[in-house]
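Repro:
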Amino acid sequence: MSYFRYLSLLFLLLYNFNLYSQKKTLQAKSTTEDITIDGKLNEEIWKSAAVASNFVMFEPDNGKPINESKKTEVKVLYDNDAIYISALLYDDEPNKIKKEITNRDVFGVSDHFSVYINGFNDGQQDFRFFVSAAGVQMDCLATEDFEDFTWDAIWDSEVLLTEFGWVVEMKIPYAALRFSKSQKQTWGLNFMREIKRDVQKYTWNHIDTKIGAVIPQAGILEGIENIKTPTRLFLIPYTSAYYQQSDIGSDTTLKAGLDIKYGINDSFTLDAILVPDFGQTKFDNAILNLLPFEQKFEENRPFFTEGTDLFNKGGLFYSRRIGGEPSSEPETATNEEITNYPSTVNLLNAVKISGRTENGLGIGFLNAVTEKTKATIFNSDTNESRKEVIEPLTNYNMIVLDQRFNQNSSVSFINANTTRNGNFRDANATALVFDLNTKENTYNLYGDFKFSHVNTIKDYNGYKTALNFEKTNGRYRYLLSGKYISENYDINDLGIIFYTNYHGALANGSYRILNPTKVFNTLKVEQELNLEIQNTTGKVQEGWYKTVLKGTSLGNDYFELGIIINPLKTFDFYEPREYGRYVYVPKRVASYFGFELNRNNALTLDMTFNFTKFDEDKRLTHGFYASPKYRFNDKLSLAYALEYTKMKNDRGWVDFDNLGTVFTERNREILQNDLTGKYSLNNKMTINLTARYYWSYSKNHDFLTLQNNGYLTPNTTYNLNKDRNFNSWNFDLSYSWWFAPGSELSILYRNYGLERASTVEKDLSRNLKNIFNSDLTNVLSISVRYFIDYNSVKNKF
């Protein structure tokens, strides 16, 4: 290649880099005119506002300019209360615009317009606001790792379908944002448009997919000056009524309470919950859990899901600890039995403060108090009952300091503390977490050091540390990772952890296409090696090689294939349920294949098949997942999901006897059925159906004794019945009406039941009959939450 051609190539590379790395700038225009959010853009001020246009494709064909027939023009106004956004979204085939009506925060099969706002322009976190062509709102807090759609802001929007496409008009109050105190504001800003039928997304400021970080590639919003924001004080009173009927009778309960949101300043917000009511939260998916660990449940309570991104840093926070199971069991004599053991602890109140200074320091504080809880114990000799405390008055506390810098890096300090009244267990955990990126967002170094202290009968300390180095740009990417966890590292009082006392290393490499080819829209191939060694014995705890291939076809059908090979003898240090013991786990090969048809189709299908073969006689696991969904029209849809797993000659712990630790060889089956349905009367009113039936059994056929070397030998003397048969049924039918911004009326009918037995019933119809003939619990509840903005009512008082 000639010297001239080298120079030409270098020029083109630099030109393209500068073209895509330049940040677009949009000037917001001040207004004193009242803006009516109706999608009509009748106000005169809109005509003189600056225009953001020339959108560029984000995916699948990254960097391709938007077609003139789909041009998009966006304008921004502001006053002392809010910013206002208008968008003209042209479409030469307006009759093909997708507009399924969904619940709030559910995207569905719709075209979308969204605005991404970073009030500190620090490249770290966006406040994202979406609206569909059907007028449905979605919003989230977004970092590079996660979009938190449990966060809900109060804002206004309206859409209008036209001859040339559709129009969006939005009002986003400053109360929904966080920004500095500067007289002249400079915000990170981007707009995104999704054309659903073509499965294409376009952004105003180009986002280069060769670079792993998205948020730092936003444009700039300028022009907001000298704003005097109103007091941010919001009151959300609620009242609810419950009628419950079960085998023990019926009961009526009335509740009332108040949530408070107060803006301490433009950057910090206080959230408080007084007299909490979580009666209408989603039910937990109970399972037959034969593992040595507790079942981890999702958090469904809004207070602990909304805006908790700061508290999730460092992995010390598992919010289900607050108001979860009691932490102790009462001591009983031989003539006593526990007749009442509460499964949960009542939450008395909770408060959180979070925000970020203009220098990039994020501060989070969370405090919650749960009440004293007692169990009832019956004495068979005296026929008297007594009560014993199983969870005292308990205070949960978290403090987070998160310093951001260089628009893409951060260092965080986290402390989690649990203090129980009296002579009960207390705990404290502290973490230092860092996430460092190069200026070009091409390489990432991140890691942590964590320390735990538990104050109980015998105090103990533990620690965990990890270091990771990752290449985050280009077609070829890789990750190198190492970690060490000490034996006594314990964060389970306010966090959750299962595996400790090991060290490990991981290497991951991947290749991806960045633009569509003649065969694929997207494609990624990933290779991974992982090795974990138990600290005390030096034995291998886990070791695998994994290959994953996933992508989308030109028809936007998704597929994924994975193969995981465990070529080493490994040992499980938890299944024996006895400290210092371990059990051999044979070599194995697992694979899975899944696909999902284009979601734009009225009828879609999601299927996954999995298979695991162990290097042990006739021991294998296989299963499948199938979920068809049919969208009858833009208002009505139904989805069914069937998940089935069969484990042949599975091995696990069952008991202790005079010979030691008893294991069993067993056959297991797991069947789960889910039915969900949605009918939208309009974009503010929906009827939702959620039903789940779960059945699982464990049938033991041989017992074994665990030897000191981790291997199992036959046990011919153990003969207790340890079979299990488990049925669980949940049915929710709800009506939701968002009758005003932030205000909701909801009606819920709930029907549920659970059956445990030691006799295995393999006939599905009989299991269904048993669960429906059992004493099902019926609950009918009505709840009203009303959002009150202090600024709208202060003059009335």
